[in-house]
Amino acid sequence: MRQERPVINLMGPTASGKTALACELYEQGGFELISVDSALVYKDMNIGTAKPSAEEQAQYPHHLIDLITPLEVYSAAEFVQDAVQLIDQIHAKGKTPILVGGTMLYFKALLEGLSDGLPSADQSIRQEILKQAEEHGWEQVYAELQQVDAHAAAKFCVADKQRIIRALEVYRITGRPITQLQSEQSKTLPYHYNFHNYALMPERLELHGRIEQRLNHMWQAGFLDEVKYLIRKYDLSPDTPSMRAVGYRQVINFLLKSDTMCNNIKIMEDQSLFATRQLAKRQFTWLRSLREKHKFVTFLSIKQAQDHLRNCYR
């Protein structure tokens, strides 16, 4: 029987301190870090993603950072494929992988598997859908989804653009609703790992304070200028998938759709803060759902997590 080897999953909402915790574990030796963050895969998106600096990455190397340009798309299926390959390579070195991040969809895909047989992304079809949305509006695109896959549409709202694109893409490729295909297909887990799942879930008020502090640091570090640079370099629009990341969405809309007066800057910053807090709320919901199905150790403070993990992985 194949021996199950350990994989540490360190999850938590944005700004909860999970990356610092993972780096502290890394310093003990015998570990490698794998990022589980759908925004850190993008090159040149540094400030708004709170990406570790070049110096920090030299001290604490992270896999799965800076993989693609902001014009490309990276799916949960690609994450699982890349993560499994890295986990096996790290185990082969006699080390333990630490997967750290806040993209709960990626963690869910790794823990529970993905449906087999769904078609890969088709960039030409995605561009067709984006063009349709640009010409007729997302309400019309959403209405089309309601026609071809009412079950999928019921799970989304008009603002869930990436999910709408994927559902319509699958329908246009296969002629069948994505929900029907998912219900028919088995989920496979082609690996044997012993997952050690940890959730860092600080008190809401503490987390909100940390989020506000981090955003203030981003504005001071030049987040606005970073998005200006990205728009020039890649000719990005608000509908580009990478620009749907929290913070980036608010900034690019501000830069391209407003008069950029000082009073509007404050409104945009407040919108970014609200959106980031909403992201944290969704991450809490994802974590609660995952804890219902999988064994977890949950920490209410960073110190509690530090004390526990130091004892477990000395």
UniProtKB/TrEMBL annotation:
Cofactor: Mg(2+)
Matches recorded under SUPFAM superfamilies: P-loop containing nucleoside triphosphate hydrolases (SSF52540)
One BP annotation, GO: tRNA modification
Region named Interaction with substrate tRNA: 37-40, 162-166
Enzyme Commission number(s) of this protein: 2.5.1.75
A Pfam family hit: IPPT
Residues flagged as site, Interaction with substrate tRNA: T103, R126
Binding site residues for ATP: G12, P13, T14, A15, S16, G17, K18, T19
Cited function: Catalyzes the transfer of a dimethylallyl group onto the adenine at position 37 in tRNAs that read codons beginning with uridine, leading to the formation of N6-(dimethylallyl)adenosine (i(6)A).
Record-given protein name: tRNA dimethylallyltransferase
This protein's encoding gene: miaA
